[in-house]
Design a protein that fits this description.
This protein has eleven helices and no strands. The protein is mainly alpha-helical. The longest helix is centred in the middle third of the chain and has 49 residues.
């Protein structure tokens, strides 16, 4: 479970709810069927119009990605793995890694190692794996755009909802007490549009983009690792090379774990 998504959503609801309370606004004003219909159904309708069916079908899966942690290998896990493979390849030859293929569950890494074992040259392997990353990023960008567009439509629909509410309120000005209530209710749609657009949809899009970038970085490390093993580089050299993808603090922890001591950089 991705705790940051849940924590952020919880804090957003608390912030708006407590803010309304401090301003003397009853949360019951949010129970406005007309405003909810215009914002929620209107946003869904706009997104469905804007994107093909093949991409809309992915939306439930995208929510799963937003609220769940990705089950992928980390860079910290990959570095010792490639170091081990490098030792095997230098001692027993590259074909000895064929026995390791059954242990590799990640399809991308499995494909790269298989090409190396099959004798493909480094340039071919890099091209194939890089193109796969680029295709993945393009798919992820298209998916994130769904939420970006929803975040654009929702606030505008909020304005539309407010206009509709004002038309209804100003159509009968005989009762001033009711008029004030109707005008305040008209702006509920605007509030819901802004809230869903800038607290939900845009942040959801950004979360998908960040997770895509992290996944692409891990896959890039896989490319460098496979090619380093293919080229017969020393395990220590591979560790140093791949560690450059880590933040300094994580790099120091890895160094301390390998050497069995504390890093001087803390």
């Amino acid at each position: 479970m991705d705790k940051t998504s849940l924590i952020g959503l919880f804090l957003a609801i608390i912030a708006v709810g407590v803010g309304m309370f401090l301003k003397g606004v009853s949360p019951s004003v949010l129970l406005n069927p007309a405003a909810l219909l215009i914002i929620v159904l209107g946003t869904i309708a706009a997104v469905v119009i804007a994107f093909p069916t093949s991409e809309i079908k992915k939306v439930p899966k995208l929510f799963g990605i937003i609220f769940k942690d990705q089950k992928t290998l980390t860079i910290q896990e990959l570095i010792p793995l490639f170091s081990e493979w490098a030792q095997v390849a230098r001692k027993e030859g590259l074909l000895a890694l064929e026995a390791k293929l059954s242990e590799v569950e990640d399809p991308f890494l499995h494909s790269g190692l298989l090409m190396a074992v099959d004798g493909q040259n480094a340039e071919f392997i890099r091209d194939v794996m890089t193109e796969e990353i680029e295709a993945m990023e393009e798919r992820h960008q298209a998916s994130a755009t769904i939420f970006t567009q929803a975040g654009t439509y929702a606030p505008t629909l909020g304005v539309l909802g407010a206009v509709v509410g004002l038309i209804a309120a100003l159509s009968d000005m005989s009762n001033t007490d009711e008029l004030g209530h109707a005008i305040s209710a008209a702006f509920v749609a605007t509030m819901l549009g802004i809230f869903t657009g800038y607290v939900l949809w845009h942040p959801f899009a950004n979360k998908l983009k960040r997770k895509s970038k992290q996944e692409a970085q891990v896959k890039q490390v896989m490319i460098e690792g496979v090619l380093s093993v293919l080229e017969g580089q020393a395990p220590k050299a591979i560790e140093q090379k791949l560690a450059t993808y880590l933040p300094v603090a994580e790099r120091n922890k890895l160094h301390a774990a390998v050497t069995g001591g504390e890093s001087i950089d803390g």
